Amino acid sequence: MISVEEALAEILRHVHPLPPEDVPILESLGQVLAEEIISDVDIPPFDNSAMDGFAVRAADVAQASSGAPVRLAVAGTVAAGYVARSRVEAGTAIRIMTGAPIPEGADAVLPIEDSSDAERPKEERLSDPACEIEIRSAVVPGQNLRRAGEDLRRGERVLAPGVVIRAQEIGVLASLGRTAVQVHRRPRVAILATGDELVDPDEPLTAGKIRNSNEYTNAALVRRTGGVPVRLGIARDTAGELSAKIRRGLELGADLFLTSGGVSVGDYDVVKDVLGSEGQMQFWQVNMKPGKPLAFGVLHGGVPLIGLPGNPVSAMVSFEQFARPAILKMLGHRDFTKPAVRAIIDEALMSSGRRGYVRVVVTRRDGRYHARATGEQGSGVLTSMVKANGLAVIPEGRGGVEAGSELEVQMLDWPEGMASLL
Ligand code: AMP
Ligand code: MG
After folding, report:
1. Three-class secondary structure of residue 4 per DSSP
2. 3-state SS, residue 361
3. What are the tens digits of pLDDT across the range 110-129?
4. Is the pLDDT of residue 147 over 90?
5. Which of 210, 211, 231 to mutate to test the pocket of ligand 1 (most atoms within 8 A of CB)?
6. Residues in a beta bridge with 277
7. What b-and-e string marks burial along 39-58, b requiring 16 or more CB atoms within 10 Å of the CB?
8. Which residue minimizes the CA distance to atom 14 of ligand 1?
9. Cα dihedral sign for 166, 21, 412, 325?
10. Which residue ranges have their beta carbon within 6 Å of ligand 1?
């Protein structure tokens, strides 16, 4: 039986970043940049004021102080979005707002707080702009100015391929005048449940039937990882039905298949057989618990298929170890590692000797992480995942783990609202 690492390496060998496509910048959030972004402008495009105040010639106010104010004639006003109509001549100032272009002749901005205008209410300043002001402090040339190009220079490389796009990258793209950007396409992940026992959530539970939960868990996991789930529904346990569904998925443009169930040693476990007829199986069974019955193959035409186990917990654990990295690689990501912490195990854990993944609750006490198993660990007990926020990883060859020892714990999710764990 191959190890988790060998299995993952084999899967990743058959999976490649998808080609770039143009998307509107706002749609690119969380995707991976597939082009180099070079600035074709200076940002900001012109010297502008960093303060509300007065554009002045620094030399005029070099001696100003609160004890010895300097008087300047006010020659006009310039607001953000406009250009001053006149120059700042010696002995004059132009009232200026944050972001407004620096008028010609001026070389510094004096904050309004350092002038006599500070005492006048805003309404009065607007209705009756002073024609003369007292300046009560000195400024040096360049003070309170934002220089053209201080954020970005024309010709400068801003973003490199491989960058994961966040809000700030989208803002930079907008400030460069971009409306669309090239990112690696999101993979279409075909999701297929197998089993004669399965019925959909809106159907009655008749004798011997259970509800198809894996299709929904898998679709949600695919979406959370950044892929586009393409749901193919339930295939009965016959080679014919499974083959038909796989062909349907290929017609729908699947980049990856995720099946669940049908990969054990039972009489009706047909996924392996169909992988052999519709493509080539690369491996079956991985040295882990839960999740041993995992099959991986490549369909004729090159589309990979990950055959997840049927047991709902096994399917999820296997998704995190194998399908998640495959989807991330297709999305163009370069780091596939699952965020993990080192945690103290509060209660002894049993292990089978295979690589173990134990559902745990991670908490933080006195600056250290602690993990405790979520009770019943049966691979069909999906509520053990509901209670968990992590998977403690027990290395191969261990019969158990003593209380107080330390293990790596993969964090299942690390979303908003979990800041207390950081
Ligand atoms: P299998 O590997 O097909 O024998 O499935 C193993 C176990 O997982 C069986 O108890 C199945 O009933 C269960 N199972 C398989 N597929 C699903 C599914 N889509 N949703 C919920 N349970 C499933
Ligand atoms: Mg089955």
Report:
1. helix
2. strand
3. 999 999 999 999 999 888 88
4. yes
5. 210
6. none
7. beebbbeebbbebbbbbbbb
8. 310
9. negative
10. 193, 195, 197-198, 210, 212-215, 260-264, 266, 309-312
Q: Which atom of ligand 1 is nearest to the CA of 309?
A: 2
Burial category of 101 from C-beta neighbours within 10 Å (exposed 0-12, middle 13-18, buried 19 and up): buried
User: Mean pLDDT score of the chain, rounded to an integer?
Assistant: 96
**Does a cis peptide bond (omega within 30 degrees of 0) precede residue 69?**
no
Backbone angles phi, psi at 192, to 5 degrees: -140, 125
**Nearest CA to 28 among 171, 195, 166, 200?**
166
Q: Is residue 170 within 8 Å of 50, Cβ to Cβ?
A: no
Place of tokens 């019925």: 199
Tell me how far apart the alpha carbons of residues 186 and 322 are, in angstroms, rounded to a whole number. Answer: 17
The amino acid at residue 221 is L
C-alpha closest to that of 275 among 296, 301, 255, 244: 296
Q: What are the C-alpha distances in Å from 197 to residues 214, 220, 235, 334?
A: 13, 22, 10, 39
Q: Atom 17 (ligand 1): residue with closest C-alpha?
A: 310
**Cα of 195 to ligand 1 centre, how many Å?**
7
Enumerate the β-bridge partners of residue 362: 371
If one counts every other C-beta atom within 10 angstroms of the C-beta of residue 413, the result is 10
The pTM score is 0.94
In 10 A of CB 308, how many CB atoms? 32
Handedness of CA 369, 375, 377, 383 (dihedral sign): negative
Among 260, 274, 284, 318, residue to substitute to test ligand 1 (most atoms within 8 Å of Cβ): 260
Q: What is the dihedral of CA 385, 389, 394, 399, to 10 degrees?
A: -60
The confidence band for 43, taking pLDDT boundaries of 50, 70 and 90, is very high
- Contact present, 358 and 323 (Cβ < 8 Å): no
What tokens appear for 317 in the block?
A: 């654990």
Q: Looking up tokens 């195990």, which residue turns up?
A: 345
**Type of residue numbered 49:** S
Give the ligand whose atoms come closest to the C-alpha of residue 237. 2
Q: What are phi and psi of 58, to 5 degrees?
A: -55, -35
Q: Which atom of ligand 1 is nearest to the CA of 260?
A: 16
Q: In whole angstroms, what is the distance from residue 235 CA to residue 396 CA?
A: 34
What SS3 class is residue 119?
Answer: helix
3-state secondary structure of 60: helix
